[in-house]
Amino acid sequence: MIMKEIANNKYKHSELTGKIIGCAMKVHSTLGNGFQEVIYQRALAIEMGNQGLAFAREMEMPIFYDEIDIGSRRVDFFVEEKIMVELKALTKLENVHLSQALNYLEAYKMETGLLINFGSKSLEFKRVTNEQKLAKQLINEIKKSN
Asked: How many CB atoms lie within 10 A of CB 107?
């Protein structure tokens, strides 16, 4: 599922997600598939650093239910404090992985994320958007303009 355009200008943060995908493509073309996720995570950290991207790796984030802390989850990367990046090293991405990434966006109150799979012969990536967060922002912007 390789995107036709890395940076699609109709999406928010498309330039940044394009840079991240470009870094992932370089890592995949260098290493190929077949390694464990942690190997790709380390290589992607090096490549994003080489490209001047600011990121936090394996940042632990609390998960809340009804405003009560019920545990935590480590996200693979937060890039430029705008994009959540979840990595996989699987033969093929499934809908459950997309659902997982969407759930993380909602739990972290983030708007945009990338799901990147290094395990297939061709790099797979999917841009994920927290539609609820976008809708709330749009409503707030409309209220402010009135």
From this structure: 18
